[in-house]
Prior knowledge:
Elements: E1 3-10, H1 17-21, E2 26-30, H2 38-51, E3 54-58, H3 76-96, E4 101-104, H4 108-116, H5 118-131, E5 136-139, H6 144-151, E6 155-161, H7 185-198, E7 203-205, H8 213-226, E8 230-231
Parallel strand pairs: 1-2, 1-7, 1-8, 2-3, 3-4, 4-5, 5-6, 6-7
Helix pairs in contact: 2-3, 3-5, 4-5, 5-6, 7-8
Amino acid sequence: MRSIDLNADLGEGGSEDEALLGLVSSANVACGGHAGDEQTMRRAIELTLAAGVALGAHPSYEDREHFGRRALVLPLNQVTDLVRRQVGELAGLAEELGARLNHVKPHGSLYNQADRDGPLAAAVVDGIVSISPELILYAPPEGKLAAAARAAGLTVCAEGFADRRYLEDGSLMPRAEPGAVISNVEEAVAQALAIISNRNVDTLCVHGDGATAVAILKALRDRCESAGLAIRHQPRN
Length: 237
């Protein structure tokens, strides 16, 4: 049976984490950069364990004021260090609580910039590999981030977005542009199904802080299962 992973971001201060976990097969937990702290990470780990959902780290630029969505230029060694620290903290808490970190998905501007910038992508990957070379990286199907991960021997889980519009070149529309975020449930589901049909993706993201995230995921999961798609994550080695 064909399958697709559905993922959402957790531990970012939203009120619907538990509802989201009933609909996704993997979750990306904020590690203190753009949001979150030890308490929220522990809670998110406990929730993913209870739901049987794959646990992922969601590292970002350490820029809470702009929620990690402002483009920054940092020395590459600092990028490697912040990824190592954030992923390492979540991995350590997971081990303490009897869970296992499955994957890493960079957040916000770190994700988008690294996908266009080879040296930055390599710095992100170096931070991940320093924690474990068995971790899976969630990244756009084609780009610098996926290429750097594959070059380092990491498994890549190719990602598409249900609730973000794309530009003609296949990149995400900047959030500052009108219409960049899709809140209409039917539009988001239609885009997600088109991505599944037309692109080689393994996982679809619905942003957990979106106002209609739960409704989108409910409808998307129903449509995928009606089409004969199993909802399951890609496990690490």
